[in-house]
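Worked Example 4.2. Consider the chain below.
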Amino acid sequence: MQMRRSGELVQWNNKGGYGFVRDDAGRDYYVHISSLTDGARPKLGDTVTFEIGKGRNGRPAAVVVTVTATAPIAAPTLREATRPSNTVSRYKLGLRMTAATLMTLLILSAIATEHAPVWIGLLYAAMGAGSALLYRFDKLYAMTGKYRVSESNLHLVDFCFGIIGGLAAQEFYRHKTVKPAFVAQTWVIALVHTLGLAALAFGWLHGVFGGFF
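Applying the procedure from the previous section yields the following structure tokens:
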């Protein structure tokens, strides 16, 4: 007999009847209204117990879900489901935008002091927009149980100058901010780009790449 787990409903689309349950270890599982034992629609923040089964596309999902404690808040709409939950500190959310803002300022400083060409800024802008779109699509796909954008592709685009848009999208859509391995790799990429841009902005690489730029 499969061991039941406990968790919290962290996302819920009341109109569509689906959302995500987060277990005590911080893992998110897709849940559909048909998987609730009493058939009643839950609310965001409800405490539940569940088992792990196969969802759409064979991915792990929460099944045989029972609400054990009801949260005294109204269920959100699809748009509200993308907003940060109250369990996430504002400090963690602000850290991503702070890093993205810092890198943007370093790019502008490097261009203004002629330590870097304008196309560097355009490259970061274009790849950042592409990264943000990938995170948006992955978020929507996750909420509907469809095919997901692979984590390796998200990291690849972030590394290839899309990190500013990637960090902004993670914060705005509240997506890919829980899994420790993914978060750690994201910050490694952010650190590499921040150090590189700082070197450009302060002219440390100007003598090396001056001819190229």
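Residues 118-144 form the longest helix (27 residues). The helical segments are 90-112, 118-144, 151-173, 180-201, 206-209. Compare this with Example 4.1 before moving on.
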